[in-house]
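Structure tokens please, single chain.
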Amino acid sequence: MKIIVTNKEYSIDEKITNILDALEYIKTHHNSSLGFSYGCKSGICGSCAIRVNGIEKLSCISNINNNDIIEPLKNIPILKDLIVDNSNIELKLKQSKAYLHNKSNEPISQNDVDSIDRASNCILCNSCYSSCPVFEINQNFLGPFALNKSYRYIKDKKESNSKEQFDAIQISGIWDCTLCGACSLVCPQNIDIKTNIMQLQNLSVQNGYSNPYFTNSGFDMVF
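Here you go.
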């Protein structure tokens, strides 16, 4: 079996079925300097995110096929081979203020927990940023996982006042998203990020915010 990793073709053992195993085989038998990241090997830590034939995947839980093309994530600085600089994660979370600000004393039901459960499952793998056409041309865009985290905390009943979170996502945030759904398609946790961003737009309007692009053009957004 042959695969292409960062523009170089390698032959691997036919018994290998997993991409991460294939990368480890290449490093052992062909190229000891090949750089790639991994951690848990079970699809939870997100550190092994790559692109396979142009689609973002986690190498540890993805099958390998003959002639697969393995590349690093897009839109993120490459440190070496398949290793990317994930420093944008902390930066975007800080910019979006996606964390608990003012603790509420309201009782929390299981339904409340369930309502944010899926959004809480984000593993910050950066796959959504690699697939995002807006982030590709505008690095100031808060981006998919940051907005998903914002949704998670704005919907959290433990938060008594979400004004800071709402304020943070209005500019270079929810209104800049094209709602193309690419982020939802590649999310390894099957989070529907697109729908969460749409919900943030609706919640923003309900809380007195408006699309600044429509407002500046003399139009009002109607939901």
